[in-house]
Amino acid sequence: MRLSKPFIRLPFRFDAEQLAREVAEIPPHTWMAHPSGLPGNAAIALISSGGGDNDSFEGEKKPTPHLLRCEYLRQVMASFGEVLSRSRLMKLDAGAEVSLHVDFNYHWFSRVRIHIPIITNEAVIFHCGTDQVHMRAGECWIFDSWRRHRVVNPSAEERIHLVIDTAGSSRFWNLVRDVEDDNPLHTAAEARLVEFEPGAAVEIRTEQFASLPVMAPGECSALIEDLIADFSANPGNDPGLVAAYARLLRDFAADWREAWLLYGHRPQGLPRYRALIETTRRRLHPDRRALTASSNGIGVNAIFAQRVLNAALAPDAAVD
Questions:
Q1: Average pLDDT of every residue of the chain
Q2: CA-to-CA distance for 242 and 50, rounded, in angstroms?
Q3: DSSP-assigned letter for residue 294
Q4: Number of C-alpha atoms within 13 angstroms, CB side, residue 205?
Q5: Please, which residues have CB within 8 angstroms of residue 81's CB and are 6 or more apart in sequence?
Q6: Is the distance from CB of 166 to CB of 25 less than 8 angstroms?
Q7: Nearest to 14 by CA among 77, 104, 66
Q8: Which of 172, 235, 268, 300 is the most buried (most CB within 10 A)?
Q9: Beta-strand relationship, 125-128 and 149-152
Q10: Which pLDDT band holds residue 259 (cuts at 50, 70, 90)?
């Protein structure tokens, strides 16, 4: 999700030592390798699709057994009062890094990541855009995942963060607006400590309806217009190709709306929806970086595919 600046510190503090004690009780075999095979990167699912050990973005989100065994982790996550999506413990081994990348798929267009460091040291540096920061244990941060970012752990110790995904209610985003221009040191001074309360019952609300089987035409158009505005603003893009892509994407949105008005979520529409997706995919320029986004330099083909074409129809669509 795009933010007004690379990093924003939120006004909360947590008991990192208590969090670390709970993490230490989770069996080592629970750590899952990174889905892209990044060396030295592993995760434990806390909220996931169906509550299982997976990295999926799809389907109903549920707490995993690992989270249900960790009392303070649940209290920390519930303290935000938000509807939570895929959330994990993320480990970066000694000497490892999260390589430079951008989160540009459909999930990340409307969700932000809350980072709470549990085990870390001053050598661990988070880079985002042109900024960098060391997130200290027990602090609370969000960052602009639409900018290029990476994390480096050159130390001899592992780093573990609690990472919580949420779209955020108006309460959350009003809080962000209240602190986004503050000096992080001032935010630290004003931060509220969320203490561990043994035996306290909490409610964790999780995403039940992350997406529709068939993307609504209004959402499709909004995603496409945002992308057109981005690549149209890049002076390095060929003007003729910019115009051709704007027409191609708007044609897809118009035809998607036509099909949706005919079929909605009915199974009879599946062949038409799939044909629209594949026909449009074949019409993309063979050079994946023929056009690039002004905001972060990512190729438009990849953004359009991940944000719209791959998300327009659920992989296991069983519309009725």
A1: 95
A2: 41
A3: T
A4: 11
A5: 169, 171
A6: no
A7: 77
A8: 300
A9: antiparallel
A10: very high
Tell which residue, 186, 128, 173, has the closest CA to residue 7: 128
pLDDT reading at 218 higher than 80: yes
Indicate the DSSP class of residue 299.
Answer: B
Rounded CA-CA distance 165/94 in Å is 25
**Burial (0-12, 13-18, 19+ Cβ within 10 Å), 257:** middle
Farthest CA pair distance, the chain? 64
β-pair type (83-92, 41-49): antiparallel
Tell me the sheet residues that pair with 7. 143
Cα 166 from Cα 57, distance rounded (Å): 12
| Separation CA 17–CA 129 (nearest Å) | 31
In three-state secondary structure terms, 232 is helix
- Within 10 angstroms of residue 47's Cβ, the number of other Cβ atoms is 21
SS3 of 225, please?
A: helix
What tokens does 141 get? 């941060």
pLDDT band, very low/low/confident/very high, at 314 (cuts 50, 70, 90): confident
d(Cα 86, Cα 112) in Å, to the nearest integer?
11
Predicted confidence at residue 319, as pLDDT, reads 45
d(CA 19, CA 79): 14
- Confidence at residue 317, expressed as pLDDT on a 0 to 100 scale: 56
Which of 132, 122, 127, 131 is closest to 155 using CA atoms?
Answer: 122
Q: Which residues have C-beta within 8 Å of that of residue 281, sequence separation ≥ 6?
A: 305, 309
Give the pLDDT confidence of 83-131 residue by residue, as tens digits: 999 999 999 999 999 999 999 999 999 999 999 999 999 999 999 999 9
20-53: per-residue pLDDT in tens? Answer: 999 999 999 999 998 888 899 999 999 999 999 9
Percent of the chain with pLDDT over 70: 98
B/e letters for 157-176, b = 16+ CB within 10 Å, e = fewer, are: ebbbbbbbbbbbeeebeebb
pTM over the 0.85 mark: yes
Count the neighbouring beta carbons within 10 Å of the beta carbon of residue 241.
Answer: 15
